[in-house]
Amino acid sequence: MVLALALAGSSAAMASEAPRFSRFTYQGQSQEQATPAAGEYRNPILSGYYPDPSVTRVGDDYYLVNSSFAHFPGLPVFHSKDLVHWTQIGNAIDRPGQLDFTGRRTSEAVFAPDITYHAGTFYIVNTCVSCKGNFVITAKNPAGPWSDPIWLPFEGIDPSIYWEGDRAYIVNNRAPAEPPRYEGHRAIWVQEYDWRAGKMVGESTQLINGGVDIAKKPVWIEGPHIFRKDGYYYLTAAEGGTSVNHSQVVFRSRELRGPYQPFAGNPILTQRDLDPARPNPITSAGHAELVQTQTGDWWATFLAVRPYQGNYYNIGRETFLLPVTWRDGWPIILPHGQTIPFTAAAPRLPQQRPPALPTSGDFAYTDTFAGPKLAMQWIGVRTPQTPVYHIDRHELVLDRGAAMGDLTGVPAFVARRQQHHNATISTTVRFTPDADGERAGLAAMQSDQNFLFFGITRLAGKPMVALYTSDKGAERLVASAPLAAAGPVTLTIRATGGTMAFAYQAGGATRTLASDVDARFLSTEAAGGFVGTLIGPYAFRR
Question: How far is the C-alpha of 93 from the C-alpha of 355, rounded, in Å?
């Protein structure tokens, strides 16, 4: 049996029957207890599923965008004054007409984006994998609205724009100019982009074939960025894939189209050579982008992960920050053999007040559904062609839709990222199932096949509270208990690393339905893909 959720347009006639959620609370605590001293900041700067960060500076302001794959709305955009404290200001993909994720698996669709600014306009260049390929969107205000895509006629992923005066060049990962020599053999290419006409012009030039040393068969050279300094063009890119062998490498050339020479000290960032048994490891570091501050210093944002055991992590790939040092004309993010620090000296920038909704360290929040629509941090799976929810008198109302795991539809699932390994998530739901299999409560989703449901359902004609898990598409009833009477039920999930506990409150009594449930099936290691776990309200009605 497939765990079914639904998310579709609502009508006033059905509103009284639909599940209603009155609150959503989240409290998270990092497994490592690192406290920044005065003048320090804490890594990661964006906790949880915020991978592939791209950063740009416009005057004294910094803007950052992350991958979001098949989640919608997508491509979250952040603003900061100090590179440490970030506030989400929008989602660049926020309306169904921009991109269609129908049929896309959770870890397909929009991969690593790149954000830049030129002549009063912001640009994001990106790839919609298994959609229509590479595209550009633009905005006068980085908070949006962003334009519909301009589709680009080249294959590959991870495009970025390098601006030189009034000319633009797009650099990206493509197939090499020869038959691939091995699995993961890719190349980096550059071509001019006519930003006024919105089209590619001139010839494409291969800049990097394979990676730093093709004789060693380097895999997945990707995420390239070009910048210029002291007469050199520097090309930085990720190499080794985004798991434990991830790294960042750098090349330079006197000419934009090469030839590019690799740095003898590559990689300039990696954690793959360190002892995996070290306490509180940070691993899989790469996909970096360098930015120069208005004070002349250089910094890098990049992705990395914090496993709770081995290579298990449920919260996805996160955004980190480190200073860049220059040695003999080459940038270094982290010397070989050093661990990524959880705390470090903050950038020499005007100190910014912590945002109302923190993105780093231990934090908590409550959403009472007070506005006319959900906050921009809420996301779902695939692109809804009709409204996916409505808010009525401080209650979130969900309605019918596709089964979770059904790639042809959109499930009734709106969620927030799990941002800590240790987290407590709670909501209160009112729902009376009319048929066996109907359900409403909390879902935790890592992929289209790996997820769980905890909440109200009906079994053999009786209302129950139940916990179902789906691992690789196989659903299992873990635990259930009868509900004595209709009324609101408060559901609480407590995550502790790779385990979860499930409690509910009904009729004035609080009970534990299940504890010490192995939740490693919600990890990237078990589920595959590139995303993190989402947790939030969902519903399925026949």
Answer: 23
Q: Are 187 and 171 in contact (CB under 8 A)?
A: no
Known catalytic membership, residue 222: yes
Average pLDDT over residues 516-535: 98
**Is the pTM above the cut of 0.85?**
yes
Beta strand segments in 316-438, E = 318-327, 330-332, 343-345, 363-367, 380-381, 390-391, 396-397, 412-413, 416-417, 422-430
22, burial (CB in 10 Å: exposed 0-12, middle 13-18, buried 19+): middle
| Element at 511 (helix H, strand E) | strand 509-518
**Residue from 108, 114, 158, 222 carrying the catalytic annotation:** 222
Q: Assess whether pLDDT exceeds 90 at residue 292.
A: yes
* 13 has pLDDT over 80: no
Scan for tokens 């609101």, then name that residue.
488
- In tens, the pLDDT along 100-142 reads 999 999 999 999 999 999 999 999 999 999 999 999 999 999 9
Compute the half-sphere exposure of residue 446: CA atoms within 13 Å on the CB side of its CA: 27
State the average pLDDT over residues 334-352. Answer: 96
- pLDDT grade for 1, boundaries at 50, 70 and 90: very low
One-letter amino acid at 319 equals T
Whether 52 is a known active-site residue: answer yes
Whether cis (ω within 30° of 0) applies to the bond prior to 145 is yes
The CA distances from residue 338 to 52, 158, 311, 333, 346, in Å, are 22, 28, 19, 10, 18
Q: How far is CA 539 from the centre of its chain?
A: 24
DSSP-derived letter for residue 520 is G
Residue with the two structure tokens 């997508």: 74
CA atoms within 13 A on the CB side of 271: 25
Whether 280 contacts 227, CB under 8 Å: no
